[in-house]
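TODO from last week: model Lipoprotein.
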Amino acid sequence: MIRKISVLVVYVAVLSIFAGCGSTKPKAESWVLPKKEKADSAMLIGYIGYPNNKKENPENNKLYLSEVNFMTKDKAVYFGNGEPNIELDNNYFVVPNLKPGKYYLVSFRTGELFDQLPLYDEKYVIEVKPGQIKFFGSFDFLEYDSSFLGAHSYKFSIRKTEKPSELEMFQWLNRVGAGSGWEPAIKKRIHELGAQP
């Protein structure tokens, strides 16, 4: 009896840890953008989430994006973490203080699942210049079960979506970026997109 209770306590503890994972991401509107470290530091921003339509997401489920991995082509270690990144509670992601250069999105995590993209696929490459903030894009995450003769295989794909837009993300950065040193680049891009900061 004591052994069963011990097993149950451990099980509940583990469940509590995993249940808490969904609440650990910073809230997008109260988060503070990290300070710009160098004059030529660059940044990537973007979004990955479930589709926002009833046909593909009838229950309005929310994706738990836990990591994005951007790497340069010459990075020695492929499997593992890419550049330091932050995921917010609304699935915005920020990759701040990058060295200028070309970066590939090679993988990302949704909860505990590791989602591998084709290695150095040109569809998922972006170049950032010194001091630049670049919008990588907004993507719908589509997952499906590819079953054949009783064998189950997890499959996924991502596709570009219009929401949130680049302007929406830069306006958000403008709200959370006060005192960060990124303000000139943020305001410049908002002007280029035809809006006022």
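Done. Residues 2-192 form one domain.
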